[in-house]
Amino acid sequence: MAQTTRHYVGIPRLWGFVSLAHPLSLSSLCDVFEFLQERTLLAKTPLPFCPNITLVNDDIFNWECEVIGPDDSPYKGGRFSLKFEFPAQYPFKAPKITFLTKVYHPSVQTSTGEICQDVMGPWAPTLNAQHCLQAIYSMLQTPESDHPLEESIATQLREKPREFEKTAKKYTKDYAK
Q1: Burial environment of residue 46 by CB neighbours within 10 A (0 to 12, 13 to 18, 19 or more)
Q2: What is the pTM for the complete model shown?
């Protein structure tokens, strides 16, 4: 088995120096700076429903985000943590996003927090983390059974919506504090 050598890059920032433990396989260093610019913009002008975005272990390619549940949904008042893992090919390849907070939703795998990729729609390099956050917020605002990872929850949403709402509210109260 051949051993591959990985090259890493450090990116200077205004508030210090971050060493990126991520292979330098982006198409160019310009992509890294665009990515940093995207992160900086979200930090300076956060989305109203996403007050916190932190780097995991100072790794620019791994974020933990907090999304506040929409007022007009069973997720009202909940604070949901999500993990964003950006691949080296970003923005040409979508980030992997998972809920760290347990959530009762047909498009989220209850045991792993995996989000159905169809919720995000087809990925294109023009999309970004803000798009992903808005898609997740929209998913919480209007749960649908069209793209289920949890078929039993999707069935409950279609056939017994009040029961679904009651269970989603209970999960929000118990886990999304």
Answers
A1: middle
A2: 0.81
Amino acid at 133: L
Q: Tell me the domain boundaries of the chain.
A: 47-175
On the CB side of 16, CA atoms within 13 Å amount to: 4
The answer to whether the CB of 108 falls within 8 A of the CB of 150 is yes
- Model pLDDT for residues 62-103, shown as the tens digit of each residue: 999 999 999 999 999 999 999 999 998 888 899 999 999 999
Among candidate residues 30, 50, 65, 116, the one labeled active-site is 116
87, 21 in Cβ contact below 8 A?
A: no
30 is catalytic: no
| Contacts with 4 (C-beta within 8 Å, 6 or more apart), sequence order | none
* Residue 5 neighbours by CB distance under 10 Å: 5
Tens of pLDDT along 13-35? 333 334 444 455 445 566 677 77
Q: Which architecture, in CATH terms, is 47-175?
A: Roll (3.10)
